[in-house]
Amino acid sequence: MHIESIQTGQARKVLMSGRAVMTAIRKTAVAGPVAVRPLGLEGDEQVDLSVHGGLEKAVYAYPAEHYPFWQEQRRTAGLSDIDDELPQGAVGENLSLRGLLEGDVWVGDVLCFADCTLRVEQPREPCFKFNGAMGFNTAVKAMAQSGFCGFYLSVDQPGTLRAGESFTLIPGARHVSIVERFNAKMFKHMR
């Protein structure tokens, strides 16, 4: 398991569904060591702190293995050619991880890096901004149906992270998995 890439984003106004919206969902890759503080990565901003950011949602991690799915969803929606590459960070994640899927993760698990530890807190719930970031109006529905949500992390031990860095997973109490929690949240919203 390793960090494939690290992304941060600045808050800015973008046009989504015909209206100007403040967002920091569009993340871009950063090089070198990145400082990790209790409220997230240095240089990263969150706009709506009721749903993103804070101590329990300081860092958003997403499995890099899901990017082919989103490429296909965008092709089906007529947004990209076969050769168009969706850059990591397009889902809004800070950490693109390789080797750790939602089905492998439980609330309370700890990701141990060389200079920092992060604790799994909860799955991401997609909002209307995700549709705008992906460029098609059914992206939220596709995330809800696929379960390809990623997960939020809190910072147990601040430090630094680097792209390419390996990490280990230390199991937590294993009371509720990310998949179970995501499915429960999506069911609640669909009722």
Structural summary, described in words:
There is one protein chain. The chain has 191 residues and is of the alpha+beta class. It has one domain (2-190): M1 Pyruvate Kinase, Domain 3. Helix content is 20%, strand content 30%. It contains 4 helices and 13 strands. The chain has helices at residues 67-76, 128-134, 139-146, 178-190, and strands at residues 2-8, 12-16, 19-23, 28-29, 34-37, 40-41, 59-63, 95-98, 110-112, 117-123, 151-157, 159-161, 168-170. The strands form 3 sheets. The chain has an 8-stranded mixed beta sheet with strand order 4-1-8-7-11-10-9-13. A hairpin with a 2-residue loop joins strand 5 and strand 6 (40-41). The protein is globular, with a radius of gyration of 16 Å. The protein starts with a strand and ends with a helix.
Question: If classified by CATH, what would the architecture be?
Answer: Beta Barrel
The oligomerization state is single chain
CATH superfamily: PK beta-barrel domain-like
Most strands sheet:
8 strands, mixed
- Please indicate the percent range of residues in DSSP E strands (runs of 2 or more): 25-35%
Specify Rg, calculated over alpha carbons.
16 Å
Q: What general form does the structure show? A: globular
For the largest sheet, list the strands in their spatial order: 4-1-8-7-11-10-9-13
CATH class: Mainly Beta
Element-level helix/strand string: EEEEEEEHEEEHHEEEH
Can you give the helix content as a percent range? 10-25%
